[in-house]
Amino acid sequence: MKTATVVEVLDGRSLRLRTDAILIIEGLRIPEKGTEGAKKSKQKLEELVLKKKVSYEATTWDAMGRTNAKIFLDDLDIKEAMEAFLKTL
Protein backbone atom coordinates (compact mmCIF):
# COMPACT_ATOMS: atom_id res chain seq x y z
CA MET A 1 0.00 0.00 0.00
CA LYS A 2 1.25 3.51 -0.83
CA THR A 3 1.00 6.58 1.42
CA ALA A 4 0.68 10.27 0.62
CA THR A 5 -0.66 13.50 2.07
CA VAL A 6 -4.00 14.88 0.89
CA VAL A 7 -3.65 18.50 -0.25
CA GLU A 8 -7.12 19.12 -1.73
CA VAL A 9 -10.58 17.59 -1.61
CA LEU A 10 -12.26 17.99 -5.00
CA ASP A 11 -15.70 16.67 -4.07
CA GLY A 12 -17.25 14.10 -1.74
CA ARG A 13 -15.34 11.22 -3.28
CA SER A 14 -12.25 12.69 -5.01
CA LEU A 15 -9.03 14.06 -3.59
CA ARG A 16 -5.64 15.32 -4.76
CA LEU A 17 -2.45 14.08 -3.18
CA ARG A 18 0.80 15.96 -2.64
CA THR A 19 2.17 13.89 -5.55
CA ASP A 20 -0.53 15.61 -7.72
CA ALA A 21 -2.31 12.28 -8.24
CA ILE A 22 -6.09 12.34 -8.05
CA LEU A 23 -7.76 9.50 -6.16
CA ILE A 24 -11.42 8.55 -6.31
CA ILE A 25 -12.85 6.48 -3.47
CA GLU A 26 -13.68 3.20 -5.17
CA GLY A 27 -17.39 2.43 -5.33
CA LEU A 28 -18.60 5.45 -3.36
CA ARG A 29 -21.76 7.12 -4.66
CA ILE A 30 -22.34 10.70 -3.55
CA PRO A 31 -25.21 13.18 -3.97
CA GLU A 32 -25.50 15.01 -7.28
CA LYS A 33 -23.15 17.95 -7.78
CA GLY A 34 -24.63 21.32 -6.80
CA THR A 35 -26.89 19.92 -4.08
CA GLU A 36 -26.65 20.51 -0.34
CA GLY A 37 -25.79 16.81 0.09
CA ALA A 38 -22.83 17.17 -2.27
CA LYS A 39 -21.57 20.17 -0.31
CA LYS A 40 -21.91 18.32 3.01
CA SER A 41 -20.18 15.22 1.69
CA LYS A 42 -17.21 17.31 0.50
CA GLN A 43 -17.01 18.98 3.92
CA LYS A 44 -17.05 15.60 5.65
CA LEU A 45 -14.29 14.22 3.43
CA GLU A 46 -12.23 17.34 4.17
CA GLU A 47 -12.69 16.74 7.92
CA LEU A 48 -11.52 13.16 7.51
CA VAL A 49 -8.47 13.47 5.25
CA LEU A 50 -7.40 17.04 4.34
CA LYS A 51 -3.73 17.65 5.21
CA LYS A 52 -3.42 14.11 6.57
CA LYS A 53 -1.33 11.19 5.38
CA VAL A 54 -3.48 8.42 3.94
CA SER A 55 -2.70 4.92 2.74
CA TYR A 56 -4.20 3.76 -0.51
CA GLU A 57 -4.34 0.78 -2.81
CA ALA A 58 -5.02 1.57 -6.45
CA THR A 59 -7.64 -0.65 -8.05
CA THR A 60 -8.29 0.85 -11.52
CA TRP A 61 -7.55 3.95 -13.58
CA ASP A 62 -9.91 5.92 -15.79
CA ALA A 63 -9.33 7.61 -19.15
CA MET A 64 -8.62 10.94 -17.40
CA GLY A 65 -5.74 9.44 -15.42
CA ARG A 66 -7.60 9.39 -12.10
CA THR A 67 -7.06 6.45 -9.81
CA ASN A 68 -9.90 4.52 -8.21
CA ALA A 69 -8.57 3.37 -4.86
CA LYS A 70 -9.28 1.94 -1.46
CA ILE A 71 -8.25 4.71 0.95
CA PHE A 72 -7.44 4.44 4.64
CA LEU A 73 -6.51 6.84 7.43
CA ASP A 74 -4.71 4.64 9.95
CA ASP A 75 -7.24 1.78 10.35
CA LEU A 76 -10.25 3.82 9.20
CA ASP A 77 -11.70 2.80 5.83
CA ILE A 78 -12.64 6.15 4.29
CA LYS A 79 -15.32 4.60 2.06
CA GLU A 80 -17.06 3.05 5.07
CA ALA A 81 -16.85 6.30 7.02
CA MET A 82 -18.32 8.28 4.12
CA GLU A 83 -21.10 5.76 3.51
CA ALA A 84 -22.08 5.96 7.20
CA PHE A 85 -22.13 9.76 6.94
CA LEU A 86 -24.16 9.75 3.71
CA LYS A 87 -26.86 7.64 5.39
CA THR A 88 -27.44 10.55 7.81
CA LEU A 89 -28.22 13.02 5.00
List keywords for this structure.
single chain, alpha+beta, 2 helices, 6 strands, globular
In short:
With 89 residues, the chain is α+β, with helices and mostly antiparallel strands. The chain has helices at 36-49, 78-86, and strands spanning 2-9, 14-17, 22-25, 53-61, 67-73, 76-77.
Q: Kindly report the oligomeric state of this protein.
A: single chain
CATH fold naming: OB fold (Dihydrolipoamide Acetyltransferase, E2P)
Main β-sheet, in a few words? 5 strands, mixed, barrel
Order of helices and strands: EEEHEEEH
Extended strand count: 6
Beta-strand proportion: 35-45%
Compute the CA-based radius of gyration. Answer: 12 Å
Number of helices: 2
The low-pLDDT segments are none
Helix content: 25-40%
Strand order of the largest sheet: 1-2-3-5-4
**What is the annotated CATH architecture?**
Beta Barrel
CATH class: Mainly Beta
- Number of folding domains? 1
- Kindly report the average pLDDT value: 96
The end-to-end distance, rounded to whole angstroms, is 31 Å
User: Which secondary-structure class do the elements indicate?
Assistant: alpha+beta
Give the CA-based shape: globular
Describe the 3D structure.
By secondary structure, the chain is of the alpha+beta class. It has helices at residues 36-49, 78-86, and strands at residues 2-9, 14-17, 22-25, 53-61, 67-73, 76-77. Strands 1-2-3-5-4 form a 5-stranded mixed beta barrel. Helix 1 packs antiparallel against helix 2. The longest helix is centred in the middle third of the chain and has 14 residues, at 36-49.
Topology:
Elements lengths: L1 E8 L4 E4 L4 E4 L10 H14 L3 E9 L5 E7 L2 E2 H9 L3
Parallel strand pairs: 3-5
Antiparallel strand pairs: 1-2, 1-4, 2-3, 4-5, 5-6
Helix pairs in contact: 1-2
